[in-house]
Amino acid sequence: MPDNSNIDPSHLETLDRDLGRLSTLELATGYVSRPLMGLGLALMFVVFAALVAALIFGQADNRLIVVVAAAFGAYMALNIGANDVANNMGPAVGANAMSMGVAIVIAATFESAGALLAGGDVVSTIAKGIIAPESMGTSGAFVSAMMAALLASALWVNVATWIGAPVSTTHSVVGGVMGAGIAAAGFGAVGWGQVSAIAASWVISPVLGGLVAAGFLWFIKANIIYRDDKIAAARKWVPVLVGFMAGAFSSYLALKGLKKIVSIEMGNAILIGIVVAVLVWLIMIPIIRRQSASLENRNKSLKVLFGIPLIVSAALLSFAHGANDVANAVGPLAAIVQASATGDFTHAIEIPLWVMVIGALGISFGLFLFGPKLIRMVGNQITKLNPMRAFCVALSAAVTVIAASWLGLPVSSTHIAVGGVFGVGFFREWDTERRMRKAKEKMPGLPPIAPEERRRRKLVRRSHFITIVAAWVVTVPAAAALSAAIFLVIEGVGG
């Protein structure tokens, strides 16, 4: 056995320092390489989508155009997964109802299922009146406009994800189509009535989502949390709330998520929701009774009762999102494919299966590679969420979309969900102030709260609020300006 008694202690200290430096270098290398690995995998997926398009179109004359468009569509799908999906999963993760890994698996599964099973309705970004396709003149100009719209909207969503702002990908695509249409055919090509309705949704969506979420939270606080016997109140009202959630999501999916499988009118969708709500309410009564049997009479115990309903609601939101918003990624791509192959760009555009697969896979990859940043921001950094508050946000998303559809109001699911988070946070601020005023009325001798302490007690981070609202406001004009510039470049190169 070697004798270490004669080793100079300073040599050991030097060795320890060197090992420490190596360990630090290893950690730093891993930290730097993780984003690069994500970018590398994303680039591989974009190349994969382009190769699929090249194989499908073989030696066709339009192959190069479709290959480039497929790469742009894959890039857009990655960005939708990185940004939009956070709105569905963020509240559940922030409330600790599920881990980040579980959330990503559930979201990727249900987003893909929604896209492939219930997505693929005719492309609506053109047909809804954003621009008049016939104003494009030629199929070549139309293809250039759709290419510009696709790339511009993807770039804008990428920028929004980078700054940590959840934005509407639908609005991004609308802005892209509008900007390219103006550059190609002038301001007369744009359906300004539709654009005005979309601009109105900037205000309508978050305000409605926030008010509905705050209303549900008020109901839970008044009827469960502030009761003396919280467990007895929960046994009465949690089955009702879960049943209402199930009914709302049934109507939501019937209206928004199953259009390809079967067309359901509003009245029938609401009737389906009522039937499902009653059945789930009856099923949940004995389940909640068993779950609450050993719970203590305190607020923390109530979180257990909302965990599973919250996970289910997040999954259903992901399914409906995949069914509806995959067209944002692949709609312009499908339009390019049809216009390039047939020259027809004025009629409804069907989305081919291979295009839908690119959209579904791209959303899943984008969520897996880049989604955690926005999930953490929505779930943790705007306001503090628990299962009850997150449940209110998820329920608000379904109820608000149904109400808006019934009233004919234009809304954005992204704005509704994030507005719900803001609504919950601002309601808690208001409720805290109200209770403090009541306490002061009962005890007039209490000292006033200092302004610094009052600011510290704000439950919604104003910096995130300002950043997100600003990103919402500039999404359509920013995407439009970017798209117009890209269209002029494409036309200049092509010319």
From TrEMBL:
Listed InterPro entries: Phos_transporter (IPR001204)
Top-level taxon of the source organism: Bacteria
Membrane topology: Multi-pass membrane protein
Keywords, in A-Z order: Membrane, Phosphate transport, Transmembrane, Transmembrane helix, Transport
Location of the protein in the cell: Membrane
Location, primary (coarse class): membrane
Transmembrane segments: 36-57, 64-82, 141-161, 173-193, 199-225, 237-255, 261-283, 304-323, 351-370, 390-407, 413-430, 465-490
Family: Belongs to the inorganic phosphate transporter (PiT) (TC 2.A.20) family.
Protein name, UniProt field: Phosphate transporter
